[in-house]
Amino acid sequence: MSRDYKDSVFLPQTDFPMRAGLPVAEPKILERWEKIDLYRLNRQDGKGREKFVLHDGPPYANGDIHIGHAVNKILKDVIVKAQRMLGKDAAYVPGWDCHGLPIEWKIEEQYRAKGKDKNAVPPVEFRQECRAFAEGWIDIQRTQFKRLGVTGDWADPYKTMNFGSEAQIFRELTKFLMSGSLYQGFRPVLWSVVEQTALADAEVEYHDHTSTQIHVRFKVQGGVFDGASALIWTTTPWTMPGNRAICYNPELAYVVLEVGAVEDGSLAQVGEKLIVAEALVEAVAKAAKISAHTITSSFAGAALEGVIAAHPLRGQGYDYDVPLLPGDHVTADAGTGLVHTAPGHGEDDFDIGQKFNLELPRTVAGDGTYYPSVPLFAGMHVYKVADAMCETLDKAGGLLAKSKLVHSYPHSWRSKAPLIYRATPQWFISMEHGDLRKKALQAIADTRWVPEAGENRIRSMIESRPDWCVSRQRSWGTPLAIFVNKATGEPLRDDTVNDRIAEAFEAEGGDAWFSSPPERFLGNQYKAEDFEQIMDVVEVWFDSGSTHSFVLEKREDQHWPADLYLEGSDQHRGWFHTSLLESAGTRGVAPYKAVLTHGFALDEQGRKMSKSLGNVVSPLKVADEYGIDILRLWVVSSDYSEDVRIGPEILKYQADHYRRLRNTLRYLLGAVQGFDVKSEKLPFDEMPELERWVLAELVELDSLVRNSIQAYDFHGLYSAIHNFCANELSAFYFDIRKDSLYCDDPAEPRRRAARTVMAILLDCLTKWLAPVLSFTAEEAWGYAPGATGDETDSVHRQLFPEIPDEWRDGDLLAKWEVIRGARRRVTSRLEVARSAKEIGSSTQAAPMVYASRAVFDILETVNFAEVCITSNVGLVPLEALSQEKVAVLSAENEGSGDFHAVLENSSGEMVTVSGADVLVEFAKTEYARCERCRNHYKEVGTIARNPDLCFRCDAVIGG
């Protein structure tokens, strides 16, 4: 009966649990971080270092965080932690966007539920309720962001509603005012008739909408086209009262189409003549149910110069001429090639109106109803007027065709209601005054964009954008604190007045504008009765676009410009965009050196998340079920430069990946338990080649870590770390060295080398993983040898390890690539034998390995049996085999562990080797098994005092 040697084997031991239990463990770690004030310690550790500043784009304070918030905040946290561990002073100041319509809308809803009239409430009281609402949600979101493992200055975040912030936002606005860039204009803006305010581009969503599309005749008055009708097409019938012109393209080909026959139900008249673009004749005929027609004349658009038409409702209050005017925006892509032009209801229309001095009529009020002055349609709502408009046009003989069209249409991102273009008096920042557009475009060129496609995207937006509308007709926001001279219509430009306003805002917030008499600000220089006090507020995108001025420039832990702005790709038209314009307009350059964008979070099928689909993934529920480290791993392992997908199956997959990483840390913790650096560490120059190969791999991985962090490519980095743990370590190095680790004498150099390298691996991996697996790395750090036990000790106070350059060895890496390839050939062949139940363990095998000369020369330099974990390996040059033997073995080895590697042969030539250069012939060992190490050796059974042991185990056990 053999002895039980279990107690003599040095099995890995650690209290680091195999099962993570993250939902329970993570909150405890958070409590500890709070207790020791980890962020303050990080700030102390970073004093004197080079700063790295990621400026936080402010989320909106009005609801629980969603998965998009998680992607954004986790990425920011990973980057900041990584930069800090690179040796930077990397502060993170979170912030919130607090003003704006969503919060105002919520308070109004509460009022409506109570039967309360908002207009009866003093503005300051209403604003205080909005402020309290925002503050409440900030407290909730702060706790939720902390649960994501995000470390930052949560005790002192920035808020756009802070008094100092409101004062600085106003100061930034006055820079445009004093330079003459800020002006009051009357022009079309995207307008919400539900919320009764102008909206910025970034507040607009595009959804499918069913519109009534109509073709309308405008009778030509005199000239060569007399008797014909200029035919227009529009999907907004409600804009017909605002029509003041028709546009054509001078370069397009046009025709006069004479109707020859019509289908049943057609509104076209046989014999009538219509002017349309030549390319759109068939489309017009189909839409108007014209079954036969002839072309009576063809001509270039320039021939339409000077043509005058009549509004189809002439004689009913629309008794003005409608000129045909040239416009480069006219195309033959759809419609008729003649564009209905209402200067108060479209940007191109407005530009044409300005160019040709057209009337800019006021037709639609803020609530979407026509003004009383609008003939025929006064008081009707633009959303509901389509049928009445068509009926009226039809009776007047103007309507040629109508139908329904489903198309993409702008909607409010808050009310989800469709928007209209409406000319209103608003305050604008000019894109041309002071060369703002030119400065912004240069700033874009000077900025690093990640990914690079972001540069073209924002450049095209800046190139084509109209003047920036910065006023809103609401109550909750930074006041647009301007006085306008009643006599001249000009805004008051006086730094003394501006300073008084800013000082009041600093002390009391923007409420001071609504609660103070104008004399407080105007002083003795001006009479209050001579000025109108503007009661608009500044649009929220100007608020957030100004954050750089009261965060980066005002706080000691920041610097200007930021090293990085990071948000979702939609912020090219949002925060990136407005921050660029605000800074370029006031400082001439962008407030950031680099901009990183990430995609949106979709479900596993690539669909947008919505409650109706039941596919919403809540980060807080993920925390309760899996733990936040699983979510953090998902964020960095996804290609976040594009849209990312998440759902139950993807989370399970990430949990499996996480377990592999955790098991690697756990194995290393057990392997190095009790490791004493002073007595046990083995010098590099005494290490076996296998250990030196691992260290050479660490050099490469360290370089990848540092380069990836600078490139913001965490997707590739953490895939590489995972693969290193799974392939180079677990499947190879650990597999080989477990025998030495478990069974060698503790003083044996080979075991000391393994323990030394595993201690280095543990240190590197724990630190490299810390920015991503923040909780797990912290937990592992507490179990590592040398852990101080100091309550303020944390992996998040460490720097990444400095890897000695002497470990670098490209030749060794190339050599071991060949060895590992040959090993895969062996292990693949042994798997066949194991499946056939010829062996149980690889140690029962003693295969013959036939290798080409280049590979053979390498394999002879190592203990290849140890590498393959076999009893023995016979090495024979491949050239020694007969062709018949090669053919047989090639068939047996086909598809087994194929590999490719490039190496230098004995003649100094670079050659490529592959699986074909290694053939394996299975053979079973004849040796007995050592009962301690479970390996098979020739000497087992020959040692008198321990006949069931090998020489190595006998030496460890003794007599």
From TrEMBL:
Entry GO MF terms: isoleucine-tRNA ligase activity
Domain Methionyl/Valyl/Leucyl/Isoleucyl-tRNA synthetase anticodon-binding: 691-844
Source organism superkingdom: Bacteria
Binding site for L-isoleucyl-5'-AMP: E567
Reaction(s) this enzyme catalyzes, per UniProt: tRNA(Ile) + L-isoleucine + ATP = L-isoleucyl-tRNA(Ile) + AMP + diphosphate
Keywords: Aminoacyl-tRNA synthetase, ATP-binding, Cytoplasm, Ligase, Metal-binding, Nucleotide-binding, Protein biosynthesis, Zinc
Family annotation (InterPro entries): aa-tRNA-synth_I_CS, aa-tRNA-synth_Ia, Anticodon_Ile_BEm, Ile-tRNA-ligase, Ile-tRNA-ligase_type1, Ile-tRNA_ligase, M/V/L/I-tRNA-synth_anticd-bd, Rossmann-like_a/b/a_fold
Cofactor: Zn(2+)
'HIGH' region, short sequence motif: residues: 59-69
Cofactor binding note from Swiss-Prot or TrEMBL: Binds 1 zinc ion per subunit.
Protein localization: Cytoplasm
Primary location group: cytoplasm
Short name of one Pfam family: Anticodon_1
Motif ('KMSKS' region): 608-612
PROSITE patterns registered for this protein in UniProt: AA_TRNA_LIGASE_I
Binding site for Zn(2+): C930, C933, C950, C953
EC number: 6.1.1.5
Segments forming domain Aminoacyl-tRNA synthetase class Ia: 28-646
Sequence positions that bind ATP: K611
Gene3D superfamilies recorded: 1.10.730.20, HUPs, Ile-tRNA synthetase CP2 domain-like, Valyl/Leucyl/Isoleucyl-tRNA synthetase, editing domain
Family to which the UniProt record says this protein belongs: Belongs to the class-I aminoacyl-tRNA synthetase family. IleS type 1 subfamily.
Subunit annotation: Monomer.
PANTHER family per the UniProt record, alphabetical: ISOLEUCINE--TRNA LIGASE, MITOCHONDRIAL, SOLEUCYL-TRNA SYNTHETASE
NCBIfam families cross-referenced by the UniProt entry: ileS (TIGR00392)
Function as written in the Swiss-Prot or TrEMBL entry: Catalyzes the attachment of isoleucine to tRNA(Ile). As IleRS can inadvertently accommodate and process structurally similar amino acids such as valine, to avoid such errors it has two additional distinct tRNA(Ile)-dependent editing activities. One activity is designated as 'pretransfer' editing and involves the hydrolysis of activated Val-AMP. The other activity is designated 'posttransfer' editing and involves deacylation of mischarged Val-tRNA(Ile).
Name of this chain's protein: Isoleucine--tRNA ligase
Record gene name: ileS
